[in-house]
Here is the input.
Amino acid sequence: MTNTARVAAISAIADLPYPDCTVDTTLVTTELFGCNVFGPSEMQARLPKAIFKSLSKTISTGAKLDPSAADVVAEAMKSWAIERGATHYAHVFYPLTGSTAEKHDSFMDPDGKGGLVAEFAGKTLIQGEPDASSFPNGGIRATFEARGYTAWDVTSPAYLLENANGVTLCIPTAFVSWTGEALDKKTPVLRSMQALNKQAQRLLALFGNETSDFIAANAGPEQEYFLIDSNFYYARQDLMGCGRTLFGAASPKGQQFDDHYFGAIPARVLAYMHEIDHQLFKLGVPVKTRHNEVAPGQFEIAPMFESANVGTDHQQLLMYVLKSVAKKHGFECLMHEKPFAGINGSGKHVNWSMGSAQAGNLMDPGETPHDNAQFLVACAAVVRAVHVHGGLLRAVVASASNDHRLGANEAPPAILSVYLGDQLGDVFDQLKGSGAKTSKKRGTLKIGADVLPELPKDAGDRNRTSPFAFVGNRFEFRAVGSSQSIAGPLVALNTVVADSLDVLVTEIEDLIAKKKTLIQAVQIVLKRVATEHADVIFNGDGYSQAWHDEAAKRGLKNLRSTPDCLGELIEKPVVDVFKKHKVLSKRELESRYEVYVEQYNNTVLVEAKTVVEMAKTQIYPAAMRYAGELVATVTGLELLGVARATDTVTTVGDLAVGLMREIAALEKLLDTHHAKPITEAKHLQAKVLPKMLEIRAIADELEGLVADDLWPLPTYQEMLFIK
Ligand code: ADP
Ligand code: MG
Here is the structure.
């Protein structure tokens, strides 16, 4: 038998006991929430008043950090952490790989008398120097300037990461080079938030709504993921090495009944989710919703929105917790955008808005958006930003894995457009004329059964096909991939919206200087935006061919693959806008471009090599063994005069030979190398990926023919339905 791994996997799962709850349920959520976070209440309790005030000011207004506070904070943080069992501390940083990196140091130092003393000075809190020179940096860290520093980000709270082998104090940091250039994903998030705050303050001032609060970009990311039993995972080289199945015939039952979507959560998964919520609550991540998603084996978790910076760090933490707790429950959490062909992939909808406690949510239209001028200018700025910088917004969600999702009829298309919905769409139409005079009413929803309540109706419906949709009081950037850091998309959004606000507010100020009233000036500017940028607004079906044709007529970019769009990162308008708002320099952008092209190439190359290896060492042998069995049996039967060679023998034989022929062709393609990374990327995209698909088609056909007891790879049916 060659399906031993599969059989063993299935019986291991069948033998699992009914899942026990793995967390302490006596703890109430309010006590649990943030108990492992060095947050405001812990700081207030442990820090001198003046220092607490100065830190709080930095956090809430974006004011400069008072360096003299560091020693005191470090001491308080250390004693808090040690009281809770911490032995080590780590500066956590976010390299361009999209992962989370940490370097652990012990609190203990020799005391000079043969013993140890717990040390953690202010300067250790503020600054670290992990070597970390192996992270991709796109040329920013040449050998003569190879130093990299981590710098404490006081706006993102430190926390304790507990695991079976100890407790570590984790301090979120920015990671920069000796020249001060950003080597990471956090630094630009902070810079872009600063840029957005500056322009948002100008907008508020225009309408007499000055505030001392920092106007923060807010992010609420919805994370989709798959869970499969780890026994299946370890039996598949493609899942282990690439995070997705490179082979696998569709199972007869897929998602056609939609019976998984929002269905009752299986007991084993619920035990997992319960622990996830528990762990994340302790870490102060405000997770709110959890449910089954469309595909079998697919789930979603969404925290409540937070400031873009904290939300991004929490998102990284959430992905880490999802993956590590899965292992404890015998699952593997697949974050890949398309782990299985033929069923839905996973995305990460990033809900975005801007605001503060004092100023409220600047993206909230109120009941009558047509006469909410401040909202309309803010909204117009977003519309303009997406229109002017659609290419950039496409590039920041690009990856080899997200390519399998964008553009397929399940996820938003690669064309960046804005969905405004009924009410706001109508207001924007009116703005093109002599100004907006009315807003469509919400109304109530009558259900037709007297016992049911009348429901207040939302002002606009939803559009699941739009990559960028207005959803009541925020925009939802739906093209982001499930495995991605949300930092890149947020940096781009914050920066281009800051720029649009800058342009629109300046225009309004200039008109006022020329003796227009505020309202006249606003009307002129809104009319211009509604007219000039109408082409980016699209409320219809984003999946349809008609939209692809129409978008081309409107001049909207349709950048289908990663190699098609990464170049956008270094186009002049992008370089200019990032420079103007001091978010990323040209060199920093170029470094990102280089790193992401390299990442694309590495990803596809590893996949292609995995295809070759699996086909040669698993699929071809299975096919040939089966062919051999058939030949032997049929020959015997022929001898007895019972039967003649059947179609199956020849089909299997032909397919196996075809498989090896295409593998040879793929190997030849892999031998072709291009010196320029982007040329290599285009080669991989245009030649190698299609060849991998051809090979897959043959292998998947074989899967439907070869005797099940000879098939080595866990099937779709098994992976998706056995839990
Ligand atoms: P749905 O699946 O209906 O889109 P969810 O409840 O799953 O909605 O997720 C919505 C996300 O949007 C949550 O993270 C929520 O906190 C976030 N959100 C709500 N209001 C805002 C806002 N003003 N700004 C940013 N995000 C928001
Ligand atoms: Mg959603």
User: Anything to note?
Assistant: Residues 222, 349 surround magnesium ion (ligand 2) (CB under 6 Å). The mean pLDDT is 90. Residues 634 and 645 are 6 Å apart (CA to CA). The chain has three domains: 33-184, 193-245+256-584, 600-721.
